[in-house]
Write a structure and sequence with these properties.
One of its GO terms (biological process) is peptide metabolic process. This is oligopeptidase A. It is an enzyme of class 3 (hydrolase). The chain has 705 residues and is mostly helical. Among the domains are: 7-153, Neurolysin, domain 3; 187-259, no CATH class; 264-359 and 562-629, Orthogonal Bundle (Neurolysin, domain 3), CATH 1.10.1370. Helices cover 55% and strands 6% of the residues. It has 26 helices and seven strands. It has helices spanning 30-54, 59-86, 90-111, 114-125, 134-149, 156-186, 202-214, 233-242, 246-257, 268-284, 290-295, 302-333, 344-359, 363-366, 372-387, 479-496, 518-524, 530-536, 548-557, 562-581, 591-602, 618-621, 631-649, 654-669, 677-685, 692-697; strands at residues 188-191, 227-230, 390-393, 406-411, 417-426, 437-442, 459-466. α4 (114-125) packs across α5 and α20 packs antiparallel against α21. The chain is globular and about 80 Å long.
Length: 705
């Protein structure tokens, strides 16, 4: 009996292998992954063989062919990985899991290539070194450093051990994040009695009823239920902030902090394996611990990071203690029986009530002022003012993975396109991972020019998880969601407005990890800038602008509980550094003991003994933040200081704002990884960074008498 042609025979039509301007996101299916990635790796293996045979220590004979190889794997694997994050299916997962080891094996071979490493060293030692541009010097130095960290200098058996570790780490990271996703999806609480969810705002009830409909309760309504509560951020946060039912808050909180910590989805053994393997990897590379490996490619050192965290911790502690006192007193004044015994599932609830009474701001009541289309218009107008760019809708120009995804073109002041980006704004819990992120689709590059004359233009994607439109209303955002969009757009700007043509250091490539959050956190500051906010905040039905007194309250509320929020980030950052520098896997202390110990210094109300938040800490076990979570705070110092340049110039002086914006674009957004981040910062600010602006913005500077 004749069999149908196998997928392998259709390799020519595999969308992953096509030459494209924009990836064919609409047609890539799970069945394309195995044959597509395997065919790609085979091609790249032979390209690498060729490069190793013909390599010479020159740009055309070394860096250009290398960039082509690196770019191809980055772009194609990036497509597949992106689809896993936004359109997850069991089939796609299985396919990626199967080819992942082959992809890692290729990357290791590339990263450990002696001929390439030796050619870079020859450039470094050649008499022409001094005549190279700064960006080219950075590429050479980065490549030498990366090769050493990739194990290029290890002897055979050690290299084999190193490669096994890398494979296993990659596999464990995937498994870790899948367990978090599955554990998050697993929890569902069906509620039929409206009294049980008293206090939940209309948007949350609408969302919970929509969930119920999707679970087969087709007659569910926001008004009469039934309602389904999940651990997805929009659902979880609204319960913690608004549900008057204390036992519901407790149940949901306990479920949240114990995600992926038991049964088939238990991440505890995975955490221990990851930490053990990272430690072994560090030792193979002659480092004392994994934190030192991490810092080898960052601005900071372990000591400098710890010093900054301690400086911020001591500035935040008293304010955080006062925050808890304020909540006790306020909840007592409201007759709360739990006032003397406030715990984790009370803090967010009473904070919201205190915020409402103190600033008379109800996040939910502000939603109608932040409709998604208006927010985007305001953001794009700000980008035009600061950076002299126009952002135009270009839907239909590029294929997308979901009907809600928008596509935009970025043009410079002369009307020429300089970049493109996708934006996938809404939460889709069944297939999309939580959080918000930006990543590159392709980066700017001279070598990979599409027409042989002008550089290939950068393309980015931004992904958020905000509340979807309900019925015929647009997506109405919380102020926090507005900040998130500004944040991710800051990342995208650095990728898209780069003027760097060397692809290996263009945009966000080659920028030290602890500096990458600078432009994103910088953009968040504009959410509090009067003109910017007022241009966004228009009621979606009446068009009325946000009242002035509400703006002033938002401004005042910005430092509300700043001490507590600062300590929350410091707990994560200190715990991450501790686990990667001092913790001994398999020793007398468990990872949870370390969390309890670190939390004594960083949390006014210590975590519950059964807190297993580490089991869902994707950032450090499945993201790029291992021994790097401190970089949020490190970059916050840089970004607050950068924004203070606009404050110094005068935020109301539009000419000064434009001039400072131009300078920011020409330094921080333009230079990419082609110049050391400290030098880029100094080029913009005229001096080295100081934490003073951050503490001032957070209201944590001691007031001088």
């Amino acid at each position: 009996m004749a069999s149908a042609p196998s997928v392998d025979e259709n390799i020519g039509s595999n969308p992953l292998l096509q030459d494209f301007d924009f990836p064919p996101f609409d047609v890539v299916q799970a069945e394309h992954v195995r044959p597509g990635i395997r065919a790609l790796l085979k091609q790249l293996e032979s390209d690498l063989d060729e490069l190793e045979k013909t390599v010479e220590p020159s740009w055309p004979k070394l860096v250009e062919p290398l960039e082509k190889i690196v770019d191809r794997i980055t772009v194609v694997w990036g497509m597949v990985n992106h689809l896993k994050a936004v359109k997850d299916t069991p089939e796609l997962r299985a396919a990626i899991e199967e080819v992942q080891p082959e992809k890692v094996k290729f990357q290791l071979r590339l990263g450990q290539s002696k001929p390439i490493y030796n050619a870079f060293k020859a450039i470094r030692e050649s008499p022409d070194w001094e005549s190279l541009s700064e960006a080219r010097k950075r590429i050479v130095e980065n490549q030498i450093k990366e090769a050493v960290l990739n194990g290029v200098s290890l002897e055979d058996d050690k290299r084999e051990q190193f490669n096994k570790i890398e494979q296993e780490l990659e596999r464990l990271a995937h498994k870790f994040s899948e367990n978090v996703l599955d554990a998050t999806k697993k929890f569902e609480k069906l509620i039929t009695d409206k009294k049980e969810i008293d206090g939940l705002p209309a948007t949350a009830l609408g969302l919970a009823a929509q969930r119920a409909v999707s679970k087969g309760h087709e007659n569910a309504t926001a008004e009469n239920g039934p309602w389904v509560i999940t651990l997805d951020a929009p659902s979880f946060i609204s319960v913690m902030q608004h549900a008057r039912n204390r036992s519901l808050r407790e149940e949901v909180y306990r479920a949240y902090i114990s995600r992926a910590s038991s049964g088939d989805l238990d991440n505890t053994p995975i955490i221990n394996q990851i930490l053990q393997l990272r430690m072994e990897k560090a030792k193979l590379l002659n480092y004392k611990n994994y934190a030192e490996v991490s810092m080898a490619t960052k601005m900071a050192t372990v000591d400098k990071a710890e010093e900054l965290l301690e400086k911020l911790r001591s500035a935040s502690w008293n304010a955080a203690v006062q925050d808890v006192e304020d909540l006790k007193n306020y909840s007592k004044s409201q007759g709360a029986p739990e006032a003397d015994d406030l715990t984790h599932w009370d803090i967010n609830f009473w904070s919201e009530r205190l915020r409402e009474s103190k600033y008379d701001i109800n996040e939910e009541e502000l939603r109608p002022y932040f409709s998604f289309p208006k927010v985007m218009d305001g953001l794009f107008n700000l980008a035009k003012t600061l950076f002299a760019i126009d952002i135009e809708p270009a839907d239909g120009l590029a294929p997308v993975w979901n009907k809600d995804v928008r596509f935009y073109c970025v043009k410079d002041s002369s009307g020429s396109p300089v970049a493109y980006f996708y934006f996938d704004p809404y939460s889709r819990p069944s297939e999309k991972r939580e959080g918000a992120w930006m990543d590159e689709v392709v980066s700017r590059s001279r070598v990979l020019s599409r027409n042989g004359t002008t550089s290939r233009l950068p393309v980015a994607h931004m992904v958020c998880n905000q509340t979807p439109p309900v019925g015929d209303k647009p997506s109405l955002m919380t102020f926090r969601e507005v900040e998130t969009v500004f944040h991710e757009f800051g990342h995208a700007l650095q990728h898209m407005l780069t003027k760097q043509d060397e692809g290996l250091v263009a945009g966000i490539r080659g920028i030290e990890w602890d500096a990458v959050e600078l432009p994103s956190q910088f953009m968040e500051n504009w959410c509090y800038h009067r003109d910017t906010l007022m241009s966004i905040a228009k009621h979606y039905e009446t068009g009325e602008t946000l009242p002035e007194e509400v703006y002033l309250k938002l401004l005042a509320a910005r430092t509300f509980r700043a001490g507590s929020l600062s300590l929350r980030q410091l707990r994560f950052a200190c715990l991450d550094l501790e686990l990667h520098s001092k913790y001994i896997p398999g020793g007398s202390e468990s990872v949870y003991d370390v969390d309890q110990r670190v939390s004594k210094r960083t949390q006014v109300i210590p975590p519950l003994p059964e807190d297993r938040f580490l089991c869902s800490f994707n950032h450090i076990f499945a993201g790029g933040y291992a021994a790097g979570y401190y970089s949020y705070k490190w970059a916050e110092v840089l970004s607050a200081d950068a924004f203070s340049a606009f404050e110094d110039a005068g935020l109301e002086d539009s000419k000064a704002v434009k001039e400072t914006g131009h300078k920011f674009r020409e330094t921080i957004l333009a230079l990419g990884g082609g110049k050391a981040p400290l030098e880029v910062f100094v080029a913009f600010r005229g001096r080295e960074p100081s934490p003073e602006a951050l503490l001032r913005h957070n209201g944590l500077l001691p007031v001088t008498a």
